[in-house]
């Protein structure tokens, strides 16, 4: 492989991830109910220089012992724009939306490269279709907006130890995409781009439980289950629309039931999304409401003084 | 009673943010002209931004840190991987001393990524910018140059068992090395990327714990112990701290040099960096100066450099108490 001349590269001999002597640890088990979503942490406005930004995390369960610690999803999203298209670009009556999803090199068990691979480009495309149905593009002719997502920590691919080359491109990809959809929705609202509704992502899966019967669970953590099929939807609750659906595996006859469960999972994620958007809007209104009085507020609150600028 | 006490709204008045965007230079100048000079952010000239360090939040890393410096946020992860001595194309001499072993083999691999959407100036989809490449290189130079990491921590030794009584005592040999990947991702960029990145590197290295690795002669491979109590911290020789200063000057080719005024701004943010044409980065460790890097301009003289070094020593004291 040719070395990347713009980055500092690994030693010429090539390195391998450490191999561990087998530890007899029990794989993590699902402690939640089948229809319970993991706790979501969602906050907007983490990148002040961007038009809109948000951070999404599924914090690890504090009850799990440190040795069996599994991935806890961490995603940041920034939205740059809408900004005018460059002069030489062709006319566009709609907002040009581009999405960009990249895993950090340390996001999965196996290190990833710095250059986007095809699975990341695929995630970006799925995200774009999910968002395209929500954004009112006609309101922003001749402009463009970039949605940039960095996955700081991905989701495991399957039960611990089952895969050696764990790149986060198996079952875990669906949870990551659901997180991407929810966080991008929050960031787009934070950027003030008009939307028809809030879109949220949700995943449901058919899994083999301990007695090897098949059950449907919401928001599966792939490390905890043997998954048979999984389904992701991007769902607009108030319009009852699905802008993106992605199903993997053999769902058997009950397709409708699985989709219905995924929609239910998206509805749960939406409650957190609504809270985060409400918080950010309230904060923005509060920042706007005391109109800037040049002389009074500076002295009393110790804020930087306004100065007279001439010329 | 003649004068109207209420300030009449002037005919042309913009909020602060508009002035800052339209004329960043005069805006900063107007702030610094005050007595005492106050920067637009409300800081004094020598004041650093608030920092916040969180460590150990990444699952797949051996050490990690999130550092906030005002509105600049950086994540640094340290991941160890194994380089087999047999795989090295041109192995170093047995007699060579350990000192530049790390650099010869390239066992520390720092990379800075700015294309994470951290600021509108660094949009992804492009190869790393010159700034990102130069920052990676600076971190690399400082890591190797100040000999922070102990080479012995990264060597995986093996002593062959004695077969015959008559043999000499077997000599331990190096079978493999740990390679440390330092990935530094900017989440949010608001000026002074190098200080933030370096602080994150130091915090991550200080919390790095590598598993105990041993050479398995039968499998011809390195095997690590999964037990948590066998993880060991790195022994770091030094704790360098960097501080960056920017110089704002009203110097102008059309004016006399004596008319120009200048101010040294500690820990500049993006709005200040954009209008400053001279910068100084000082690296110190305890009582030693490890490096002074001055870029451009002709304002900073000997005294100003000494002043900056003093400020950096004070900064070192402050930072070394908060580093984990």
From TrEMBL, chain A:
Protein location: Cytoplasm; Nucleus
Annotated Gene Ontology cellular component terms: cytoplasmic exosome (RNase complex); nuclear exosome (RNase complex); nucleolus
Any GO BP annotation: nuclear mRNA surveillance
Matching CDD domains: RNase_PH_MTR3
UniProt cross-references to InterPro entries, sorted A to Z: ExoRNase_PH_dom1, PNPase/RNase_PH_dom_sf, Ribosomal_Su5_D2-typ_SF, RNase_PH
Keywords: Cytoplasm, Exosome, Nucleus, RNA-binding, rRNA processing
GO molecular function terms listed in the Swiss-Prot or TrEMBL record: RNA binding
Signal sequence bounds: none
All copies of domain Exoribonuclease phosphorolytic, residue ranges: 36-193
SUPFAM superfamilies, alphabetized: Ribosomal protein S5 domain 2-like (SSF54211)
Disordered as annotated region, ranges: 1-35, 283-311
A Pfam family matched in the record: RNase_PH
Family designation: Belongs to the RNase PH family.
Protein name: Exoribonuclease phosphorolytic domain-containing protein
Species in which this protein is naturally found: Cryoendolithus antarcticus
TrEMBL record, chain B:
All copies of domain Exoribonuclease phosphorolytic, residue ranges: 47-211, 264-313
Main location: cytoplasm
GO MF entry, a single one: mRNA 3'-UTR AU-rich region binding
Superkingdom classification of source: Eukaryota
Keywords, sorted A to Z: Cytoplasm, Exosome, Nucleus, RNA-binding, rRNA processing
One matching Pfam family: RNase_PH_C
Cellular localization per UniProt: Cytoplasm; Nucleus, Nucleolus
GO cellular component terms, semicolon-separated: cytoplasmic exosome (RNase complex); nuclear exosome (RNase complex); nucleolus
BP terms from Gene Ontology: exonucleolytic trimming to generate mature 3'-end of 5.8S rRNA from tricistronic rRNA transcript (SSU-rRNA, 5.8S rRNA, LSU-rRNA); nuclear mRNA surveillance; nuclear polyadenylation-dependent rRNA catabolic process; rRNA catabolic process; TRAMP-dependent tRNA surveillance pathway; U1 snRNA 3'-end processing; U4 snRNA 3'-end processing; U5 snRNA 3'-end processing
Family to which this protein belongs: Belongs to the RNase PH family.
Name this protein carries in UniProt: Ribosomal RNA-processing protein 43
Taxonomic source organism: Cryoendolithus antarcticus
Source organism phylogeny: Eukaryota, Fungi, Dikarya, Ascomycota, Pezizomycotina
